[in-house]
Write a structure and sequence with these properties.
By secondary structure, this protein is α+β, with helices and mostly antiparallel strands. It has a domain of about 90 residues: Immunoglobulin-like. It is built from two helices and seven strands, in the order H-H-E-E-E-E-E-E-E. A seven-stranded antiparallel β-sheet has the order 1-2-5-4-3-6-7. A hairpin with an 8-residue loop joins strand 3 and strand 4. The model has no long low-confidence stretch (mean pLDDT about 90).
Length: about 170
């Protein structure tokens, strides 16, 4: 018994084994696809441009607004400073003759480069003499600091600058 060789009989591949193997294979593929679709839907907010035609019209208006903004020669400076769990955003706005802009409303927001759902607005108050201040919760990461200056309900100035908050 100890020195004898035992010959194993090969196991036969039945139709039932093939069927269960195929079902298991496609169940694994469907499960992985389900996980990937769920992850994609939760991490991407959707279509960036809902109407290409309207985006084209808006682009033409933006070009005209940029040319008008350039002709005004306004000087706008901004700073973002961390203060504990918050950040202080400060703006100074001056016209072409270096006079403070006092008749404008400042609208500031931190726009996330890849996810609009993370954008946050910064409520700004005028300090006088073309200065504006605002406070918002401090959020680490890369952001676009978007500054709009409105005058009589019309946007007169727009600036978009990348800031890295550490």
């Amino acid at each position: 018994m100890f020195g004898m060789k035992v010959k194993a009989t090969p196991k036969e591949l039945s139709g039932r084994t093939v069927l269960f193997s195929l079902i298991l294979f496609f169940a694994v593929v469907a499960g992985v696809n389900g996980i990937m679709v769920t992850a994609a839907v939760k991490t991407f907010g959707g279509v960036e441009t809902e109407s290409s035609y309207k985006a084209g019209l808006a682009f033409a208006r933006d070009i005209a607004a940029a040319n008008a903004q350039e002709s005004r020669h306004w000087q706008v400076r901004a700073s973002v400073v961390r203060s504990g769990d918050n950040m202080q955003v400060e703006l100074t706005a001056r016209d072409a003759n270096d006079r403070p802009l006092g008749d404008v409303v400042a609208l500031v927001r931190l726009a996330h480069p890849t996810n609009r759902r993370l954008d946050q607005s910064v409520e700004m108050t005028a300090d006088g003499a073309g200065r504006f201040r605002g406070t918002a919760p401090y959020v680490v990461g890369q952001w676009d600091l978007v500054i709009d200056l409105d005058q009589n309900g019309a946007r007169m100035f727009r600036s978009r600058n990348r800031v890295i908050l550490k």
